[in-house]
Amino acid sequence: MSQVFLNGHWLRPEEAAVSVFDRGFLFADGMYEVMPFYRGHVLLFAKHYARLERSLKALEIPNPYSEDEWLSICQTLAEQVPDANAIIYIQITRGAEYPRQHLPSPDLEPTVMATATHWTPPATTALPVRTELLEDIRWLRCDIKSISLLGNIMLKREASRLGGFEPVLHRAGRVTEGASCNYFIVKDEVVYTPPADELILGGVTRDWVIQVAKEAGLEVREEAFSVAELMSADECFLTSSTREVQPVGQIGDNQIGNGQIGPVTERIATAFRASRPYSLSEE
Ligand code: PLP
User: Fold this and answer.
1) pTM for the complete prediction?
2) Could you tell me if the CB of 146 is within 6 A of ligand 1?
3) What is the pLDDT of residues 57-78, one digit of tens each?
4) Which of 17, 96, 121, 196 could serve as 21's disulfide partner, Cβ 3.0–4.6 Å?
5) Which helix (H) or strand (E) holds 213?
6) 177 lines ligand 1 (CB under 6 A)
7) What pLDDT is attached to residue 283?
8) Cα(211)–Cα(215) distance, integer angstroms
9) In 10 A of CB 109, how many CB atoms?
10) CATH architecture of the domain with residue range 129-280
């Protein structure tokens, strides 16, 4: 584990502490961001930074640092883990105040925290996983990367109890996303993913996969699709910063395609790996 960056200080993990009156602790009043570093090189920093700014703006929490300052903090953290292969976690809350009250006082000082955890970027396309269809019980501003993740955690636990790696969520039969990932399906060689509206978190990986797939000559449509269309898809995969492109072979008892990695998914996963800032094949 790296040092912890906390309110401008670099601390050992056991030294890093925040007030019990922090609004993040009391109300989940804050946001977060997660980004992958490959050998010290970040993939799509500008997109992660833009989402960080969007989330802060939506919550009316001031951004304490410039884009360059954030990049330097993240790079310093990444360099502290083996090979600088790191997942950087940033959390910003509205700050602490006593006594507890729902309506925050103006001009609170945000609490800013960032850490790096070592990870191993996948070298080949992961084997297909099983996911579970569940009703999306979350709020209607899933586009904000809020630390209020109770709905996501309840759904992830339920999927895990059912034997799934992740849930695939729907609202009234319309597929939204996972608890911590976005979904794609392939039908007749066309790639579909739900539109980046307020019902999903617009994943940075999702955006990049769309671009990479188009560059590979595939047709990609950002269109809503139904549970029935999901279940009868030729292929299905999920995306996130940590899992990149993860094939899905089964949803509940329903097999997708032949249950193996589909050819379009394999093409996209390979193109994605080739687009990373540091290719593992260079080793
Ligand atoms: N959707 C949700 C709800 C998430 O929590 C995440 C990532 O944590 C994603 C999608 C994928 O986002 P990204 O590709 O930026 O990691």
Assistant:
1) 0.97
2) no
3) 999 999 999 999 999 999 999 9
4) 96
5) helix 204-215
6) yes
7) 43
8) 6
9) 12
10) Alpha-Beta Barrel (3.20)
